[in-house]
């Protein structure tokens, strides 16, 4: 149904006034946020916010040549001091393991070595570059092995999160680039994992989202565990990829659009966060042609999360969590006076106050943000949606 022109105009006027409400949220220092509420139909509350910004690291830019020897790849050193800084080492561990351990019992067909040499800061040479630099994870096929890249979070107690990255993947078919939560187990069927996986063999408009394991013990695909989803921005273009792991489901978004939601096998227990770029010649990944490479490029990573011990969650705790997260998460923590958002901000990486009081710096009177303003955001969003629909005569 195409809206008559006059209604389109009224809608634009009304919606413009609503979105000015959105712009009013005040930027606030994280130290003043008691919790963070994520947007979307299943918004959740989280305790902590972290932002890793790789956009202005020109002093560390260095694209090292590919090392074509297996052992030298394993032994390679960090590509710049950035990866030796506390900012990096306190949060991430760059990996050096290889797949010799699972080579014979898995379906891997190619030896793979993770190398520090494949994790580096690179100058952004795009025309109209949106940043000075970005972080690159490189995976390259040499004549007798696949050189790969991975970094894993140092904390292993992430217990529900909303994880975002501004990233793209470019390069040859036969690789996977991935952002995921991971809790290992000796039993492959007991691994807990929510995945975003780009298969460079696939068309850019498709990304695979999975709550592992995706195969049953007898080797059948668990259809409910995985989605091959079409995405509004191809993985070869810059986009914000978001993975929301909640007690009841994992949801994935591309540039704010919901692209997949899986409740089957939602991870229950504290987990790590991992990013990688790899290939091992297995059916799932394919073989990369010798001499080729693929690149996972990331401008920033942002997350809001809860952290617990690394112990397995008890079933009783899990039942309580599920009750609390029925529908929109209830505010079950009385200590959360200042509710912040990383979604409603005008400046990526910063938080804004959406409910609560912010003591003014100069000791002048504090102000209170309208509790109803969050609704303003929701209206603002459906408005822009309505404008889009009106524009396209839907
Ligand atoms: C949530 O906020 C993001 C910006 O971070 C926006 O792109 C997205 O459309 C919003 N989604 C919903 C469902 O409100
Ligand atoms: C995160 O922890 C807070 C308490 O600190 C709790 O209110 C909230 O529901 C938790 N979020 C999730 C998604 O479990
Ligand atoms: C591969 O890993 C194994 C086990 O950690 C190690 O013994 C071996 O030296 C590694 N191989 C290479 C080429 O780094
Ligand atoms: C996902 O779907 C696309 C389009 O049909 C297809 O080309 C691609 O191979 C599929 N990927 C997987 C892993 O099934
Ligand atoms: C997100 O999209 C998936 C797949 O289209 C759908 O099944 C799910 O209900 C959507 N979730 C929300 C919260 O809209
Ligand atoms: C990749 O190549 C190896 C031989 O080097 C082969 O054994 C394996 O089956 C190939 N994988 C695929 C998915 O074709």
Automatic annotation (TrEMBL):
Swiss-Prot/TrEMBL GO biological process terms: carbohydrate metabolic process
GO molecular function: hydrolase activity, hydrolyzing O-glycosyl compounds
Leader sequence segment: 1-23
InterPro entries, per database record: Beta-glucanase-like (IPR000757), ConA-like_dom_sf (IPR013320)
Highest taxon in the source lineage: Eukaryota
Positions of the GH16 domain: 23-309
Claim: Cell membrane is one of the keywords in the record: no
Gene3D superfamilies from the UniProt entry: 2.60.120.200
Keywords, comma-separated and alphabetical: Hydrolase, Signal
Protein name per UniProt: Glycoside hydrolase family 16 protein
Species for this entry: Pseudomassariella vexata
